[in-house]
Amino acid sequence: MNIETLIDEVISREGGYSDHPADRGGPTNFGITQAVARAEGYDGDMRGLPRRNAVKIYRTLYWERPRFAFVAEIAPFVAAELFDTGVNMGTGVAAGFLQRTLNALNRNARDYPDLALDRQVGPKTLAALTAFLKLRGARGETVLLKAMEALQGERYIGLAERRPGNEAFLYRWLANRVG
Prior knowledge:
Blueprint: H1 3-14, E1 28-29, E2 32-33, H2 34-39, H3 51-64, H4 68-74, H5 76-89, H6 91-104, H7 123-162, H8 167-177
Antiparallel strand pairs: 1-2
Helix pairs in contact: 1-3, 4-5, 5-6, 5-7, 6-7, 7-8
């Protein structure tokens, strides 16, 4: 899976313009919030956000900057999950899920050292991922994905429990983002 395909899928899933009253993100188009669009130089009405701007934002902020492209070279399905989770929850949360999962699966640091939970994909996270997959093989990537998605699902439920307004989105989050 390449980044163009991932971006197309996210844009398709996120849809066009939205300004749901329960969404703290405010006006959104193609899944890009107004705050993110403004930070990236777009100052027009969110209804008119060009798709090319959304594509550039997704590529830069949710793929290149968090170094998920490097993960794709090692574990493409994990990278796709990081991208999707990063878009919806933030790239630091996504990277944190990967680090937590790798730590939990390293058999008390026998397979590779525990990672600091810095929520960044750096050389140590990439090395741990490589070591995990070398030991566990292709099935390991599937198990890693299941564990990351379990963390994601738990976070969605927690968001709905802490803020009842988020219940408006919970079913869609679980249906479209987990599993």
